Amino acid sequence: MTDSEMSEFRIIQSFFYDLGASEGDAELTLGDDAAIVKVPKGARLCCSIDTVVEGVHFLPGTDPRHIATRALGSALSDLAAMGAQPSHFTLALTLPESKSQWLRAFASSLHEMACKYAVQLVGGDTTRGPLTVTIQVHGWLPRDKALQRDAARSGDVLVVSGHLGDAGAALRCLKGEIEGPQHHRDVLLRRFYSPEPRLALGRLLLDYANACIDISDGLLADAGHIAKASSLNVNINASRLPLSPALQHMFPEDGLDLAMNAGDDYELLFTMAESKLEALQRASDLPLSVIGRVGCAGQSVTVDGAEASRMSKGYQHFD
Ligand code: ADP
Ligand code: MG
Q1: How far is the CA of 60 from the centre of ligand 1 (A)?
Q2: What is the pLDDT of residue 284?
Q3: Which 3 state secondary structure label does DSSP give 101?
Q4: What sign results for the dihedral spanned by CA atoms 88, 205, 68, 128?
Q5: N or C: which end of the chain has fewer CB within 10 A?
Q6: What pTM does this model have?
């Protein structure tokens, strides 16, 4: 295939049929006016949609493979935060031009990630315009369980998976603000480009956690969302934040600030009864760190007992 422009029909035919897991719940996928998906008995549908725009969510000229993994990874992370089992997704793609090389790289990376997380592409839309990728994910929740932001209880411990601040640190590296050893940069960049939705942990948490959210806006902002939704104060112990060796090495001064305020880590932040903690830690293969506690009625987030000095609202598009 040459790198001349392809028609919409050719794009869909060449790149988006048979994308992702093949043995799924879908009965009819691409090619008709809409997809048909079988809903497993006793399941509830859980869905979420996310858009990434060139120049807003990723730098112009970003490798299409990375755009695909960030878009699908962050969308699936929302299902992880609800405790849902992902099933399938749709893709709305807006392209300034239809170059086969770009599309091939984008679609093969999307395919690889969709197979990894057992989701199937069942439909979408293809239009011309500024580069924008919208992914809607669908998954299943049991009839009687879900992880919501409003379910924290007074006395719960506040727990986070993995490490915090790496993706924000990667962005600083990409902007050329910092030099450092390549192996540390690689760790940080991987965390930014290929977020790993914590799906297995999310499903496990259905039996352990009270409130849960994924960290997309930054720890302080997302802890604030739990506090507000649950009408309870939340206190964070700064010294407990899990910082990766790469972050500590590359950002000895700003590491803590990145972990508190930077977004895009896609770790799960949840609250639970302290008495269940040991059993959860045995059942999960991810590092889980207790970083604070849920207090009495209120809506504020404190750090070491003091009102968070740089209370981040997270990234707001219309500020
Ligand atoms: P319609 O005009 O009926 O909306 P389209 O011509 O937009 O249909 O799309 C034709 C088929 O290709 C549909 O099944 C649609 O879901 C699928 N499709 C279009 N674009 C994409 C895409 N980017 N990814 C996946 N499926 C797509
Ligand atoms: Mg139609």
Answers
A1: 26
A2: 97
A3: helix
A4: positive
A5: C
A6: 0.93
**Residues composing the chain:** 319
**121, 88 contact by CB (below 8 A):** yes
Task: Give, as one character, the DSSP assignment of residue 279.
Answer: H
Who lines ligand 1 at CB under 6 A? 12, 16, 30-33, 91, 93, 121, 123-126
Q: Which of 18, 125, 128, 135 for mutating ligand 1's site (highest number of atoms within 8 Å of CB)?
A: 125
In three-state secondary structure terms, 223 is: helix
Rounded Cα distance, 246 and 86, in Å: 31
- Tell how far the Cα of 86 is from the centroid of ligand 1, in angstroms: 21
Reference 126, options 293, 270, 12, 267; nearest CA is 12
Which atom of ligand 1 is found nearest the CA of 91?
24
Q: Rounded to the nearest 5°, which phi and psi values hold at 146? A: -165, 160
pLDDT in tens, 152-164: 999 999 999 999 9
Phi, psi of 234 (to 5 degrees): -130, 130
Helix/strand/coil for 269: strand
As a whole number of angstroms, the distance between CA 301 and CA 224 comes to 6
CA–CA separation, 97 vs 5, rounded Å? Answer: 7
How far apart are the CA of 125 and the centre of ligand 1, in A?
A: 5
Confidence band, pLDDT 50/70/90 cuts, at residue 20: very high
| Coil, helix or strand at residue 127 | strand
User: For residue 18, is it left (φ>0), alpha (ψ between -120 and 50) or beta?
Assistant: left
- Give whole-number Cα distances, 252 to 29, 257, 259, in Å: 49, 10, 12
